[in-house]
Design brief:
single chain, alpha+beta, 434 Repressor (Amino-terminal Domain), two-stranded antiparallel ribbon, two-stranded antiparallel sheet, 6 strands, elongated, DNA binding
């Protein structure tokens, strides 16, 4: 029977590898080399979002970091505060609320699905809380109305 490896480097307590790794001796103790970590992390993420049980804080952190989002950005996307998201991630054994759980699963699924537009959408959604809601002007262009872009508004005010 081959040796299994408890993959704690993932930040998750329940991930074990049966193969795809080698353990070797270093001057500082045992070292581990894992083959195709990007593929492994993608497989772990897909597994997490497919399970029919709620995500816990450690799993939220794993998915967030795989999407390369900050706590602030993910919090903005799912409609939570950065402090709330930080608390969810810190409480590793606690489950996050259902709406946030489902939205995070959908975002991650789209992210790994290869949709190149999802990254732009995530960035745009993360910027929503950073935008000020000022006046918006529309101008009639032939038979259509169009919003004026910020530089055009500034030119009109000058």
């Amino acid at each position: 029977m081959s040796r299994r490896y408890h993959y704690t480097e993932s930040g998750l307590d329940n991930i074990y590898l049966l193969d795809g790794f080698t353990i070797h001796k270093t001057p500082y103790g045992e070292g581990v080399a894992i083959q195709n970590t990007a593929g492994l992390h993608k497989a772990i993420g897909k597994y997490l979002v497919a399970r029919p049980i709620p995500l816990n804080g450690a799993e939220v952190r794993f998915l967030r970091t795989e999407m390369e989002l900050t706590q602030r950005d993910l919090a903005g996307i799912i409609g939570a505060t950065e402090q709330t998201l930080r608390l969810w991630e810190k409480n590793r054994g606690k489950f996050i609320p259902g709406t946030a759980d489902r939205l995070l699963r959908a975002l991650y699924s789209e992210f790994v699905g290869g949709d190149v537009h999802i990254r732009k959408m995530l960035e745009r959604l993360a910027d929503l809380d950073r935008q000020e809601n000022g006046p918006t002007c529309f101008k009639k262009n032939n038979s259509n109305w169009k919003p004026l872009h910020v530089p055009q508004l500034e030119q009109m005010q000058a």
